[in-house]
Amino acid sequence: MKQASPSIDWAAIHTRLDKAFAGSQDSSPETIRTLLDERARALSAVPDTLQPSRERLRIVSFSVAGEIYALEACYTREVIRCADLMPVPESPDFFLGVTILRGELLPVIHLAKFLGLPQTKMKDPSRLLVVGLESNDLGLGVNDVIDVLELSAEEIRESPEQGSRARKYVRGITKDALIVLDGAALLRDTVEEERNGAE
User: Fold this and answer.
1) Cβ-contact 145, 129 below 8 angstroms
2) Cα separation, 93 vs 95, whole angstroms
3) What is the pLDDT of residue 167?
4) Could you give the C-alpha distances from 2 to 43, 54, 122, in angstroms and in order?
5) In terms of pTM, does the model score above 0.70?
6) Which of 1, 51, 141, 148 lies in disulfide reach of 125, CB 3.0 to 4.6 Å?
7) What is the DSSP letter of 47?
8) Which residues lie below 8 Å from residue 111, measured CB to CB, with a gap of 6+?
9) Alpha-carbon gap, residue 58 to 48, rounded angstroms
10) Are 76 and 152 in contact (CB under 8 A)?
11) Is the pLDDT of residue 101 over 70?
12) Tens-digit pLDDT profile for residues 156-182
């Protein structure tokens, strides 16, 4: 939301102009320095009405292996049913195959396996979260898509978990234990690993 401009105190401005005009009759270095110092202080002062801007994020939440995860909405394009997958021989174990979406091939991964989550909590994906920036680049196999939420960037804190494969793709976690993934890292590494696994 665009912030309102601070109100202008015209009376104070006229007073300073009058002082500056009066002072201009005395062009000594001391007077000029005093005037410049006053202007510098006025320019550097931050109006009380201005507040630091806070970045707002729209995120899509979904369930994977018994946990609730989320991804920024700018990376998510649509949600479809996980069906009609064609397996690809000699591909990584997290690579479920490809499906056809509006005439285009869409590679699909099992997100829980890709993140290295516990096998005991894994279920077969029932939904595909189609992700990408300018095109449908990848399908993430998830258990269910839950909601679209909005929160501030300040609400996402660094995850305390260290050392796990999933940690590499976690942007942060909220106070409600919502795990927000790094969409850019997911897109980059899934494509790279898919390529390496096929070689």
Assistant:
1) yes
2) 5
3) 81
4) 22, 11, 44
5) no
6) 141
7) P
8) 64, 69, 94, 125, 140, 141, 142
9) 29
10) no
11) yes
12) 888 765 456 778 899 999 988 899 999
